[in-house]
Specification:
With 408 residues, this protein is α/β, with parallel strands linked by helices. The chain folds into 2 domains: 7-30 and 299-407, Aspartate Aminotransferase, domain 1 (Alpha-Beta Complex), CATH 3.90.1150; 43-296, Aspartate Aminotransferase, domain 2. Helix content is 40%, strand content 17%. The chain has helices at 7-12, 39-52, 62-82, 96-111, 130-139, 156-162, 185-193, 214-217, 242-247, 282-298, 300-319, 346-355, 368-373, 390-407; strands spanning 20-21, 24-25, 27-28, 90-93, 117-121, 142-146, 167-173, 198-202, 221-225, 236-240, 258-261, 266-268, 324-327, 336-341, 358-359, 361-363, 379-383. The structure holds 4'-deoxy-4'-aminopyridoxal-5'-phosphate. 4'-deoxy-4'-aminopyridoxal-5'-phosphate binds at residues 95-97, 125, 127-128, 173, 177, 202, 204-205, 225, 366.
């Protein structure tokens, strides 16, 4: 089956793609780090700054009202995007990292105690490791790690064995940024429920590829960043179940998150504002509605199908390249391919590809423990988005094969 999308047309929405780099047409395969932005999103930023730049929520004048309406429309778009039950459950953050830190800090410091256990996995990004380590240091709780197999899939029977009445929290990645593995998070949440643990899902790499329904998943928290789903950098969403968010203390203190302040006592604002201290990144939040609208217009299923075709095509071609090994061969994967080449450092591979206009990521992908699990110092990683093409895969595979042959 071929894709229903008109990729040539879609590429017109992303002017950045039609440039040359080092004299070669740009092939942008670093989408897991950040996706490119369509004109609809870029124009939303310009419209905001040229038409109605103003602070939100506190002003009575025309511009403040317009900015506030646009800001809150993005919250509604995000609610719809992940199917949260209410707007009170949709907190605007700086991104995935801040969302996880907010939960670990606010929920964690109130409810996690010495001897409690928190489960994460070997596949986690540092953003879903370090906040929990910090919490464990502060509380005396214990961090437990779900192991993986050689394909980069979680060992579910090990996870099951780990769950016990001391397990208070499970925080796992939906889709691995380094390997592309899709984790069976719905099943994992059900299993955690049996011991009464809460679950946070790191959806940073999931929302651009998979349909996300937080009510169907029944997760307690869900976090993602706008910039990986055709939105801009510096903003993201934390979803939390209302009654749990209500029970948590504020994360940052300041303007907006308060109801009344006196030197004797301060009372806090209602949800979601209790967790939104200070002036937010208004323009970028406003633009989020357009990023979500863009994905909705194309259809997640169509995007996923196109990216899956690229993944299958690229994987087959790459398997024919001598001395190349793909790291991460899970049955359920998104369009992310990590690889190493015998005798060639991943950094040199990245440089050689760059010289040919091809952008891939090299290094540890903020997953150092995962790299250690495979006994490697890092990988090169190609990751696809809706605007990528088979022709680009052909260029990439050709230049990659040449680079490995030359350097190994
Ligand atoms: N988790 C995962 C799985 C990611 O891929 C990333 C971004 N690479 C993050 C967390 C952190 O996201 P951000 O830097 O946007 O906060």
């Amino acid at each position: 089956m071929t894709t229903k999308l008109d990729i040539v047309q879609i590429r017109q929405d992303f002017p950045i793609l039609s440039q040359t780099v080092h004299g070669k047409p740009l092939v942008y395969f670093d989408n897991a780090a950040t996706s490119q932005k369509p004109l609809q999103v870029i124009n939303a930023l310009t419209d905001y700054y040229t038409g109605y730049n103003s602070n939100v929520h506190r002003g009575v004048h025309f511009l403040a009202d317009k900015a506030t309406t646009a800001f809150e429309e993005s919250r509604e778009a995000a609610r719809r995007f992940i199917n949260a039950a209410s707007l009170e459950e949709v907190v605007i953050t700086k991104g995935t990292t801040e969302g996880i830190n907010l939960v670990a800090s606010s929920y964690g410091r109130k409810f996690i105690k010495e001897g409690d256990e928190i489960i994460i996995s070997t596949l986690e990004h540092h953003a879903n490791i370090v906040p929990w380590q910090m919490l464990c240091e502060q509380t005396g709780a214990k961090l437990r790690i779900i192991p993986i197999n050689e394909q980069g899939e979680l060992l579910m029977d090990e996870y099951e064995k780990m769950l016990n009445p001391r397990t208070k929290f499970v925080s796992v990645v939906y889709v691995s940024n380094a390997l592309g593995t899709i984790n069976p998070v719905k099943e994992m949440i059900k299993m955690a429920r049996k011991v009464g643990a809460l679950v946070l899902i790191d959806g940073a790499q999931a929302v651009s590829h998979l349909d996300t329904d937080v009510q169907d998943l029944d997760c307690d928290f869900f976090v993602f960043s706008a910039h990986k789903v055709y939105g801009t950098t510096g903003i993201g969403i934390l979803y939390g179940k209302k009654e749990i968010l209500e029970s948590m203390p504020p994360f940052l203190g300041g303007g907006e998150m308060i109801k009344e302040v006196s030197f004797e006592k301060t009372t806090y604002n209602s949800l979601p504002y209790k967790f939104e201290a200070g002036t937010p990144n208004i323009a970028d939040v406003v633009a989020l509605k357009y990023a979500i609208g863009y994905v909705e217009k194309l259809g997640k299923a169509n995007i996923a199908q196109h990216e899956h075709e690229l993944l299958t095509y690229a994987t087959e071609k790459m398997q024919e390249i001598p001395k190349l090994t793909i790291i991460g061969t899970a049955k359920e994967k998104v369009g992310v391919i990590s690889f190493v080449a015998e005798g060639v450092h991943h950094f040199d591979l990245g440089m050689m590809l760059d010289a040919n206009g091809i952008a891939v990521r090299t290094g540890t992908h903020c997953t150092m423990p995962l790299m250690s699990r495979f006994g490697i110092s890092g990988t090169a990683r190609a990751s696809f988005a809706v605007y990528n093409t088979k022709e680009e895969v052909d260029i990439f595979v050709r230049e990659l094969a040449k680079a490995i042959q030359m350097m190994s």
